[in-house]
Amino acid sequence: MPNTSLTQQTHPFNETLLDASERLRSILIALYSIDLAGGTLGVIVMSHHLFRRRSQSVMTIIIINLLVLHTLLLLSIPFRLSYYILRKWKFGTFACKLASAMIYLHMYTTFAFYIAIIIIRLFQLEFKKCYTTTWVTAVWLVGALVISPVFLSYYGTSKTYDSSECFQFHQEIQETPIVIANYCLVGILLVICTVLTTIQLSVIYRLAVKYWPDIYSHVEFRAQAKSFFFILVTLVCFMPHHVFRIYYIQNYHLDKDHKLIPYNEIFLALTTMCCLDMLSVKEKAFDQKISLMSARFELPC
């Protein structure tokens, strides 16, 4: 005779897990929908604005590359939404790995471009456009010819996964090289963000004291304040994922019911919200940024 009390206790517990899973899935759908709509609008508006200006400044080159990056990510989001809405992956294993690779490639390449913008403005560096084009091209080549092939060749190959599921390569986290790589990426991002945030805040404080009370009437202060925006995007979008990643790695062996996986997916989805950055760059402000950067940071090749 079955244990009735045990069944009654287990049933509510399973319902609770199911409700929690549905809520987390709804959050994922909402995040990616907002990202797709807002990111697409931002890319269209900024592309139109750049086309009208026809500027060839160093900062414009970086902004254009950010637009291309965001566009590539936005093209992959409908596949993710399809999976979360239909609860089934219908595009094959390679497409799943490609969509997974895209979100990480976008995150770290965007981070690299953000850091470049921050450093150029922070230290008022002067670059020739040909040098900027060279290092930007190098970033793309490393991502496309080194990181992506390695990711697609090895990620998700050490274990067997159901072809109808996607973004479930959680078993890979047990592999020592994957753990080391994750810790290194987390450490690098934390150190860079901490150092640049400290320097940027000190510069803003120094300028605020120097130009007070008419601080916003000075182009130099406005430029540094706007530069701090990219640090905020990094802290809000990228940092939570990496901090949670440490917790996820350390507690994966205790997560028998895989409760942490949806939370990891939510923090990963949060990284894609950086695509909304173009919506925050108003036309007048962008004109001022490009003019200021062109005057200070552009040298003939």
Describe this structure in words.
With 301 residues, the chain is mostly helical. The protein has one domain: Rhopdopsin 7-helix transmembrane proteins, CATH 1.20.1070.10. Helix content is 77%, strand content 1%. It contains eight helices and two strands, in the order αααβαααααβ. It has a two-stranded parallel sheet with strand order 1-2. It is globular. The termini are far apart.
- The CATH homologous superfamily corresponds to Rhodopsin 7-helix transmembrane proteins
- In angstroms, what is the radius of gyration? 22 Å
Order of helices and strands: HHHEHHHHHE
The N- and C-terminal alpha carbons lie at a distance of 85 Å
Helix run count: 8
Helix content: over 70%
Q: Which shape, going by the Cα principal axes?
A: globular
Mean pLDDT: 80
CATH architecture: Up-down Bundle
Q: Count of DSSP E strands?
A: 2
Spatially, the strands of the biggest sheet line up as 1-2
Structural class: mainly alpha
Write down the domain tally: 1
Oligomer: single chain
Strand content: under 5%
User: Runs with pLDDT <50, length 5+?
Assistant: 5-10, 283-297
Reading off the top of the CATH hierarchy, the class is best stated as Mainly Alpha
Q: Report the major sheet.
A: 2 strands, parallel
Using the coordinates shown, work out and report the CATH topology: Rhopdopsin 7-helix transmembrane proteins
Note the main attributes of this structure:
301 residues; mainly alpha; Rhopdopsin 7-helix transmembrane proteins; 8 helices
